[in-house]
Amino acid sequence: MKNPAILLSLLFANLIFGNKIDKLKTTKDVVKFVKTVHPEYGVVQYKNFARGVFDIKPIDTVYNSIRCKEAFAVSEIKSWQKIDINNDGLTDLIFISHYYGYTQNIIIDKGRNKFNLIRNIVNFDECEYIKPIRVENKNELLVRNVSLPFDIFPSDKVENYIKKDTLTYRFDALIERNSKPSDGKIKSVTLKTNLCYGICPVYTLTVNKSGLLEFNGIEQIEFKGRSTKQLNPKDVGELFDLMNYIKIRDLKDYYEVNYTDAETLNLTVHFEDGSVKNIKDYGTTGTRGLSALYAKLKRLATETQWK
């Protein structure tokens, strides 16, 4: 349950600064606003390459462009819509962008004219979508994912690989909703990265429950060698709460994408009872909760001032 004082503070800030999303009336307004949040959308690299020009298309155009119309009803598709996704009293935005294909994205209003863009949540071109739903009197998102295996055969039907789930906005990310988080009494978590076809930093990072960070930079990274830092209690608590929320002990041990030359992440979680959970993720295709965890650990590894 959110602190009432925090909610009142957010609502008061909204009255002072105004909610820019609330003021959006037309698709043209939305396109202009999205470009202010993410200026990269306003950059046209190739003038004659329409696929790379950011736009929000009419519903009929979107529907006629997707290759699996049988998976959608036209009424389910909205080019953009306003809704309070994280139930904090501020209006957020969901939109389908045309930018190197059709994808769905959201912008979370963080208050005081600060916004968080989450890009490419699903790929419309691959018959995926998200839409708002109500769960226990709160706004959440229903997601329809298509996860194809590495060894898929031409005769296989995409429908065999469809999975629907409910997403919630927590820990500054969209992750799978879990009504019963665990209390795994985690002692430490270690992320180990490997080389890939391209530029992938290689390092090992361990975060202990005490907040002690242990880092070893190996290749393709600014700091090479071993170093330690102390993480503040708030960030430690959020990181460990995230692992318990996604029930990391119950996740699969191995994930993989259906293509080659991808990055491999190895996650090791030590519990206070002496047990260990190992996850190998080729292509970082695990759960959305895992992706949120990877993102936090990667930021700690690459943005901390190691000495």
What does this structure look like?
The protein is α+β, with helices and mostly antiparallel strands. It has two domains: 4-170, no CATH class; 186-303, Mago nashi (Mago nashi protein, 2-Layer Sandwich). Helix content is 20%, strand content 35%. It is built from five helices and 15 strands. The strands form three sheets. It has a seven-stranded mixed sheet with strand order 12-11-10-9-14-15-13, covered by helices on one side. A hairpin with an 8-residue loop joins strand 9 and strand 10 (202-208). Helix 4 runs antiparallel to helix 5. It starts with a helix and ends with a helix. 21% of the residues are buried.
Number of domains: 2
The radius of gyration over CA amounts to 21 Å
Shape summary: globular
Give the proportion of residues in helices: 10-25%
Q: Strand share of the residues? A: 25-35%
Number of helices: 5
Q: What order do the strands of the largest sheet run in, or round the barrel if closed? A: 12-11-10-9-14-15-13
> Total number of β-strand segments?
15
Unreliable segments of 5+ consecutive residues: none
Given helix and strand content, the structural type is alpha+beta
Mean pLDDT: 88
Distance between the termini: 40 Å
Biggest sheet layout:
7 strands, mixed
What is the chain-wise order of helices and strands?
Answer: HHHEEEEEEEEEEEEHEEEH
Give short descriptive properties of this protein:
single chain, about 300 residues, alpha+beta, Mago nashi protein, 2 domains, 7-stranded mixed β-sheet, 4-stranded antiparallel β-sheet, 5 helices, 15 strands, about 20% helix, about 35% strand, globular
